[in-house]
Design a protein that fits this description.
The protein is an alpha+beta fold. About 35% of the residues lie in helices and about 25% in strands. The protein is globular.
Length: about 525
């Protein structure tokens, strides 16, 4: 791999901060479409950001769960060019993509011969509440009515009608957003507690922007319409699933060995094509010789604490906005510094538990879910992943159950600071408490902590436009990805920000508004 002395290159150089989906996509696009040399600086020793695959004793973990599904034709094509859908002779599913049909196999094959392929997976996720499972999104089914009871269902119906006729105005907070779309009773039943568990703030303290970005297209009417389509048998074989909200999709693609299986080969492609990737290099500052009109240097420290300077003609940043602004080694407006310093984030812990079996309703059994939203108010776990159901190849021994228990916290709080052994015990005890496992069935476990996983829409976020406009004024700076834009993007949105930034450079376009429009004006938005 070439050394870090960028001054020896005659080509223009783009320093890319971070080797997650956005950073790696930017580098690969630059190499394919321009003569600009990408140099990626990654603070971690692994690549992929939270889209990595973490291996523990032969079992693989997906941090947060990554469905490979997008309404963007460009992103779908990008994925499938690098990792085709698994082929086979049995268990065929007819999918349609770019107007063409293909026969693909969703079962198990030889992991050595067909490792680099996408599986077609059935999407199953439910809510666990009142020690019962509810379909997600919640539907007005006999099961739902039985689980909730007639009195509560009646209150939900009349509350929904009341707020559809007389909505909250003006709509300011996330609480307003939910109540206007689902009614106050349904909001109190299924949205309020879970959302506050995830974000650590009251819903009335969270900006409505989060709802506008993540659940804009979802409504009770669309959920009912989708259920009727399912009964009619439509849309079940179309992988593209046009006209379906992301929260309602029925199937998705998934790399056989987890999401890192996509990004590790992309990193290898970048190096093979002459790009540079430096891991263990934490960016600690950016410099400008013209007072911040443009950037010309990126500073990074290696594991030994030695600082190195990298020349930059362009800078793509996926690092948290808070850290980027703090590292600017030139005068920055005080308002920008103050707002950036106060931007909130939510940190994330995954506790991996390996078990002999699950216990459901007091009996040994299995569940079909990719993940389960834990709505119960007496435990802190927010979501439960069943890695066996993402891909059987994530589990070393198919006779065991491999779970990911997800906790949302703040760096430094009591949960974050708990030692690994205590946290594993705590997590197992919570699952036993709500009736999903018995602790005696736990065979092993591990803990993964991820900082600044979720940029939050609270506090000074309401003033974020001041920071955004300042970042956009730096001519050769391109904030991309989730943390780079302080925007709760999915990985496909993050990739699109990188692709669009390269589009702008290739076209000589200076306006960056099209970057910020991604996942704001797109045709679909994720839920929960």
């Amino acid at each position: 791999m070439p050394g870090p002395d960028a001054s020896s290159h005659n080509r223009k150089v783009a320093v890319i901060i971070g080797a997650g989906p956005a950073g790696l996509t930017a580098a690969r696009e630059l190499l394919e479409r321009t003569d600009i040399l990408p140099i990626i600086l990654e603070a971690d020793t692994a690549i992929g950001g939270i889209s990595r695959t973490v291996e523990y004793k032969g079992n693989r973990m997906d941090i947060g769960g990554h469905r490979f599904f997008s309404k963007s034709e460009r992103v779908m094509q990008w994925w499938l060019e690098r990792m085709p859908v698994e082929g086979g002779k049995s268990g065929d599913i007819d999918i349609r993509y770019h107007g063409q049909s293909a026969r693909v196999h969703a079962g198990k094959g030889d992991p050595q011969k067909e490792a680099g392929v996408m599986l077609v997976r059935r999407r199953v996720s439910r809510i666990y509440f009142l020690r019962r499972f509810f379909r997600y999104p919640v539907t007005l089914s006999l099961e739902t009515m039985r689980n909730l009871g007639l009195p509560r269902m009646t209150r939900i119906l009349f509350s929904y009608l009341r707020y559809r006729l007389f909505p909250v105005k003006p709509e300011v907070s996330l609480e307003d957003f939910f109540i206007n779309r689902f009614g106050k009773e349904l909001y109190l039943t299924f949205f309020k507690d879970y959302t506050e568990k995830v974000w650590g703030f009251k819903c009335h303290e969270i900006s409505k922007d989060w709802g506008a970005q993540r659940v804009k297209g979802l409504s009770i009417s669309k959920t009912i319409a989708h259920a009727l389509k399912q009964l009619a048998g439509s849309n079940k074989k179309d992988l593209r699933q046009r006209g379906t909200e992301t929260s309602l999709i029925e199937q998705f693609l998934y790399p056989k060995l987890g999401p890192g299986q996509m990004w590790e080969p992309v990193a290898a492609e970048i190096s093979a094509l002459g790009g540079e990737l430096h891991t263990g290099m934490e960016v600690c500052g950016v410099g400008s010789s013209n007072g911040g009109l443009s950037l010309d240097t990126v500073y990074a420290r290696n594991a030994a604490g030695v600082e190195q300077a990298f020349r930059a003609d362009y800078v793509f940043s996926t690092m948290p906005v808070k850290d980027l602004v703090a590292g600017m080694r030139f005068p920055v407006p005080e308002a920008v510094k103050t707002i950036a310093e106060g931007l909130p984030y939510r940190d994330f812990i995954t506790v991996g538990l390996l078990l002999k079996k699950l216990t459901v309703d007091g009996k040994a059994g299995t569940i079909p879910d990719n993940w389960v939203y834990i709505q119960e108010r007496d435990v802190r776990i927010g979501r439960l992943q069943v890695f066996n159901n993402w891909s059987p190849w994530l589990v070393k021994d198919p006779e065991t159950v491999w779970l990911g228990l997800e906790y949302f916290c703040m760096e430094g709080d009591e949960l974050w600071s708990m030692d690994d052994a205590a946290l594993r015990h705590f997590a197992a005890a919570e699952l036993e408490q709500i009736g999903l496992i018995e602790q005696r069935d736990v065979l092993d476990g591990t803990v993964i902590r991820m900082k600044k996983t979720y940029p939050a829409y609270t506090g000074v976020y309401s003033e974020f436009d001041t920071v955004r406009h300042y970042l956009d004024s730096i001519e050769n700076l391109y904030p991309i990805g989730r943390n780079g834009m302080h925007k709760y993007n999915n990985s496909d949105h993050s990739m699109l920000t990188a692709m669009t930034a390269v589009d702008n450079i290739a076209a000589g376009r200076r306006d960056k508004a099209n970057l910020w429009a991604i996942n704001t004006e797109m045709e679909y938005h994720e839920s929960k």
